[in-house]
Amino acid sequence: MSVASKMVASAALLGGLLVCLALLARAQGQDPAGAGAPPAPAALAATAGASPQLPLVARPPAEQPPVGLPGDAHLDKTPPRRTKGLDLVRMGWTYNCMECHKLIPARWHYDRPMAEHQDIRLEHGNNRFCLNCHHPTNRNAFVDYDGSEIAQRDVVLLCGKCHGPTYRDWEAGVHGRANGYWDTQKGPKTKLRCIQCHDPHQPAFKPMPPLPPLRYPPRAAHGRSRIERPEDNQP
Amino acid sequence: MNENPHNSVSPKTIEQVYQPVTRRTFLKGTAAAMAGLAGLVAALKPLLALERGEMTLDDLLQKHYRELKPEELQRILRELEARCAREHGVQPVIRDLKPLPGVEFGYALNLTRCIGCRKCAHACLQENNQSRSSADDIEMSYIRVLELKKGAINLEESDLYYNPQTVPQKDKYYMPVQCHQCRQAPCTKVCPVQATWQEADGIVVVDYNWCIGCRYCMAACPYDARRFNYRKPNLQSARINPNQSYLSNRIRPKGVVEKCTFCLHRTRDGKYPACLEVCPTGARVFGNLLDPDSEISYILKNKRVYILKEDVGTLPRFYYFFDQ
């Protein structure tokens, strides 16, 4: 009797372990950061309002494929956003936020330092509240006005909640990077989305070092024929 | 005999009648002959290049681009490719792209977004085969990024050689200036040999093989958008862009004027120009003015647009606009 109960218990334990493994595998299969797999057509078709040829943005911008055409390798087309990745991601976690947050509920942070995500500093103007953008229960999604979910790849719709004129310009192709072909009959045009250039937590561009000045003929240079160097001022 | 004073003829001297060669006339004539001879030698000087094998008889007798038959043009393109391969060690593809029907190019630049990083000017060097390897040489970038004080558009106080640690500086804004592809282009009107003209899609081009290097067009341009090849281009072969075209970025000879062509070897292929491709802030917008749904049409309809030196009446196809 006791032997049988022990066998049942161990079988249940083994079964539980298998289920856990399967769940883990499923979670990793769904992980959008994984392996750069091409997006499923169904997922793209479900995208509302976004052009289907846009790449998924679930990967951090540092791992995004290069923008523009492969033949233009001589041109430096890196967007201005430089990301180091979240601390947690560098520790080996993925961008599937629900790995942790299915256990850890949302807390209503407002204007106070967070105990977790210490690397995130929120400098987004008047927008000082995590759950203005992040969904309270599904941390892989963003939140709309009515509490419904905005998928990560539709992040443009989230930003458009407040930045209406900018969203309108982006739709028209006037705000933000465009690369590739202006004539869409001849080839694809890639448009970058908000968070591929702007860090959503600190959306203002960081000042960047300029490339060195070029040398111009005197007339075009308003009489200055060359770059003034510090030694020029010495007698 | 009474002499009629009205009939009186003063006798001419023998010198006045025969005009013999004096020292003065001899020197005059010699000087004129020397000047004429010098002019003849100068006019025939290209033949020396022919003699040395630097150019062929076909080069010398080549017609204007717009008078070339297609097969003649193809032969010239192949010769230019061979010359580039011989002199620079890179085999390019030199094409002749014609204007697309129903297309007129326009360019707009967002002064609110431009941060003055100069990526466009450097990309222009690489795309258009202007990289000069000598540190003393003038770089030929068609784009000048001007740093201006906020509050006014005062080009006279602009700084071309700004070089702070980081851009943008707080009280400054940045205005890249390049060829405006004017509808009333003064540069094409002053050319004595019609080596520069406006194409059907609005791009002002130069036939480098027809240009005589007089630089009238540079004097006429109100935007300082043209550059002169004072020297033979000194290019590193690793930095040569093999995608070339006859009217835009093929390697130019010494002594001709060149200019921005909106990268017509790219844009007539449907691609964006190189300066737009690299702009990190997306301040540059390019498109077809004749297409009411294009990006450039959206800007002309919806934005506050500024035209640089509008008062000179050149009607540019290059617009500046503001977001805020």
Structural class of chain B: alpha+beta
Radius of gyration of chain A: 25 Å
Q: Order of helices and strands of chain A, N to C?
A: HHHHEEHHEEH
Work out the helicity level of chain B: 25-40%
What portion of residues of chain B belong to β-strands? 15-25%
Show the largest interface.
A-B, 48 and 59 residues
Main pleated-sheet profile of chain A: 2 strands, antiparallel
- What is the global morphology of chain A? globular
What integer is the average pLDDT of chain B? 90
Rg of chain B is: 27 Å
Strand order of the largest sheet of chain B: 10-2-12-11
Ranges of chain B where pLDDT stays below 50 over 5 or more residues in a row are: none
For this structure, the CATH topology of the largest domain in chain B is: Alpha-Beta Plaits
Assembly state (oligomeric): heterodimer
Strand order of the largest sheet of chain A: 1-2
Give the end-to-end Cα distance of chain B, rounded to a whole number of Å: 105 Å
Question: Given the C-alpha coordinates, what overall shape of chain B results?
Answer: globular
Q: What is the helix/strand order of chain B?
A: HHHHHEEHEEHEEHEEEHHEHEE
Which key terms come to mind for this protein?
heterodimer; A: 235 residues; mainly alpha; two-stranded antiparallel ribbon; 7 helices; 4 strands; globular; disordered C terminus; B: 324 residues; alpha+beta; Alpha-Beta Plaits; 2 domains; 4-stranded mixed β-sheet; two-stranded parallel ribbon; 12 strands
